[in-house]
Design goal:
Blueprint lengths: L3 E6 L4 E5 L2 E4 L1 H18 L2 E9 L2 E10 L2 H9 L4 E7 L4 E7 L2 E9 L5 H15 L5 H9 L8 H12 L1
Antiparallel strand pairs: 1-6, 2-3, 4-5, 4-8, 6-7, 7-8
Length: 165
């Protein structure tokens, strides 16, 4: 079971400055995001997966690899206007982001927490979801010249990254 290290919402940072008048404390939010950034960058790379809530249903994100927090945060924050962040003791991160159509869920799993067999499954799903793009068949063929079972964790992570870019 994931034990929570800390969690917060950007709604937590509204402070009452007068009776029923609240102001948002961006500095306090930034301090909390900096903690997440430190954990992320210390434990990177992360496999990113999740789903996006749209007016017509949920869309599953393709697996992606992020090597630094700012790249992930820039991508995520362009889609949402309110976030809830949970950081687990095992350094996995879950972020729920609210927007006008619904809720996006971002799951970030530290590669070092993933067993090699599980990483193979993620790599195969990444290949399946990207095979429809031009050139992906060649990417798979090139990588599969080496038996899939012989790929090390770094090669699997690079493969997932290549499928998503």
């Amino acid at each position: 079971m994931n034990e929570i290290l800390f969690k917060f919402s950007n709604n937590d940072f509204y402070i009452e400055v007068e009776d029923n008048h609240f102001e948002y404390d961006q500095n306090l939010f930034d301090l909390n995001i900096d903690e997440v950034r430190k954990i992320f960058n210390k434990n990177a790379p992360y496999i990113f997966t999740g789903s996006c809530g749209l007016w017509n249903g949920r869309v599953i994100y393709n697996n992606t690899v992020f090597y630094d927090f700012d790249s992930f945060y820039n991508r995520m924050s362009s889609d949402i206007f309110s976030i809830d962040v949970i950081v687990y003791k095992n350094k996995n991160i879950t972020i729920k982001g609210h927007h006008h159509d619904g809720i996006n869920v971002y799951e970030l799993i530290a590669v070092k927490n993933i067993k090699k067999n599980e990483l193979k499954e993620v790599a195969l799903k990444s290949l399946d979801s990207s095979i429809y793009f031009v050139g992906r068949n060649e990417l798979a063929k090139d990588l599969f010249d080496k038996p899939f079972s012989k790929l090390n964790k770094e090669e699997l992570v690079n493969f997932i990254y290549d499928c998503s870019n």
